[in-house]
Amino acid sequence: MTSKLNVSSLVAALVVAGLVLLPVYSNLTGNIFILTLFTRIVILALAAVSLNLLMGYGGMMSFGHAAYLGIGGYAVGILAQEGIGSGWAQFAVAIAVSALYALVIGALSLRTRGVYFIMITLAFAQMAYYVASGLARYGGDDGLTVYKRSDFGGLINLGNRVQFYYLCLACLLAVVALVWRIVNSRFGLVLQGLRSNEQRMQAIGFPSKRYKLACFVIAGMLCGLSGALLANNTDFVSPAVMYWTRSGDLMVMVILGGMGTLMGPVVGSVVFLVLEEVLSQLTEYWALIMGPLLLLIVLFGRGGIMGMLGRVNRG
Amino acid sequence: MAEPLLRVDNLVRRFGGIIATDHVCLDVSKGEIHAIIGPNGAGKTTLISQLTGHLAPHAGRIFLGGRDISHFPAYKRSALGLARSFQITSLLTDFTAADNVALAAQAHDGRHSFRFFANARKDKPLRDAARAALERVGLGHRADVLVSKLSHGEQRELELAVALATKPQIMLLDEPMAGLGVTESQRMVKLLAELRNEVSIVLVEHDMEAVFALADRISVLVYGRIIASGKPDEIRQNEEVKRAYLGDQHVVVGHG
Fold first, then answer.
1. CA B199, CA B33: separation in Å to the nearest integer?
2. Buried b (16+ CB within 10 A) or exposed e, B202-230
3. Looking at beta carbons, which residues of chain B come within 8 Å of A174?
4. pTM for the whole structure
5. Residue B79 predicted with pLDDT over 50
6. Assign residue B221 a region: left if phi > 0, alpha if psi is -120 to 50, beta otherwise?
7. Residue A197: its chain B contacts at CB < 8 A?
8. How many Å lie between the alpha carbon of B200 and the closest alpha carbon of chain A?
9. Distance from C-alpha of A80 to C-alpha of A68, rounded to nearest angstrom
């Protein structure tokens, strides 16, 4: 048990150290591309961490998590187009609207369970997708270009690659720390109890639904933050970012890295997106290699990469 | 006469054409152990599930301390002092024994659980409450063991500790002896006998030796109906009960 913790913690520490030092490497080698790639990875890792709170700790298999990427993104894009460039306002709206959406969707979806919960969260995300496609004023299907990145005054310049990267990384690490605190709090124990046995939790006196809904809303807000960063990264937001395949990608990152482990989704995102990048350069049929590879890891590596590390260590 | 702690008034529950609970009336006084016996499929667990709020009755009412709780959700009934142990052990298996009990205490320490930062495993009052409940059932030395690593007997004891940690007025115990060996059963009987002064108990049990050793009153449930209710001696002598239940179980009773 302790040895498992050690190896996982070691890998987690190495990943964090790597992410922190990445701009230095990029600067020394003049490799700008890798910084761009990892900015995206860090942002999507943040989304995966939020989904892990929901899936891994809350036991709620949401198949519509990418909706918040879109909501966060459109909050930035629409406000920018309407002349509100303040990052504070944009990010606040991104998070607030995500919370509101999660509150409504969660209240409705949490009436169901199992496969129905998966399907209904998927259906709502697809609805959000079509709503975004219908926003003619904001580009409709073609999406919306963000001509000016969020403006945080003199505090930080999002146009600067390195500064933006560190902002994203700081957000990621802050969210990981937040999730760590939540998981061990009163709320977190109730949440994990509900994942394990909801009927039992009701029998010992917990009103289960309101705790699950609170988790749903927190996860949505965190992913909304990720969406706001993502729009700044691509200078663009389109309905495609909320499409169901993107929700599926996020789920794969979580499961690949290890559901219900603190750093699993971060590791999963790095592995998933780097593999995608490398394989897609080798062949245009990269999905043919990626698919079976993921299947193997999921089939034989129960607990994802973090779970496998634990077993290697013990063996 | 004083209002009984728990009163069940003409409770009815159907599953399709089958009446699983057929106008059941029942009352439990403070400090009483009221056993419910009956052959398999008599509707004992269905009855318990309606009492705890996991299953809605189609008719009839349930009163706890004079208050109509028929339509309260499970968590509210727990808050009012009604605890349950499950027939099939139903613990949080990926938690330690202490975590299981501490969570039950957490639900009843008068504070809500929308607290997101402080480490709940370092909450001393909760941990102390958990330890006390574990000591009570003889599991003090197993506090930090994962539930999945506990023996079946220990899990049954833990079920009881969890119920106790909710500070109940009345506990509904659904076959607490199920699957226990002889010595484990005896320990459980002794434990329940000690608890009788603190908390009322509704005991659903197949182990007749345990039932007749513990119960102040026994109700016999057959095909969803209570066919007899009375002191253990009266039940033993009741012809209808003998025919319906004890008769075809004489082998079990005989060697028990």
1. 9
2. bbbbbbbbbbbebbbbbbbbbebbbbbbe
3. none
4. 0.91
5. yes
6. beta
7. 90-93
8. 17
9. 18
pLDDT tens across B216-246, in order? 999 999 999 999 999 999 998 888 888 776 6
**Any chain A CB within 8 A of the CB of B83?**
yes
Please give the Cα distance from A157 to A165 (Å, whole number).
11
CA distances from B60 to B3, B8, B47, B74 (A): 17, 8, 12, 17
Q: What count of other Cβ atoms lies within 10 Å of the Cβ of residue A25?
A: 13
Test B92 with A207 for CB contact under 8 angstroms: no
Interhelix angle A87-109/A66-81, rounded to 10 degrees, is 140
B15 beta partners: B18
Supply A35's token pair: 């910084």
Pick the residue of A53, A202, A210 with the most B CBs within 10 A to test the interface with B by mutation.
A202
Kind and range of the H or E element at B18?
A: strand B18-28
Cβ atoms of B6 and B27 within 8 Å: the answer is yes
- The verdict on a CB contact (< 8 Å) between A211 and B113 is yes
Q: How many CB pairs under 8 A join A and B?
A: 98
Q: Which residues of A touch B91 (CB under 8 A)?
A: 197, 200
Report how far residue A70's alpha carbon sits from residue A49's, in angstroms, rounded to the nearest whole number: 17
> End-to-end alpha-carbon separation of chain A, Å?
13
Q: Which of A184, A192, A199 sits opposite B119 (nearest CB)?
A: A184
- Dump pLDDT digits (tens) for A137-193: 999 999 999 999 999 988 999 999 999 999 999 999 999 999 999 999 999 999 999
The reply to whether residue B91 touches residue A201, judged by beta carbons under 8 angstroms, is no
Nearest-neighbour CA in chain A from B243: distance (Å): 36
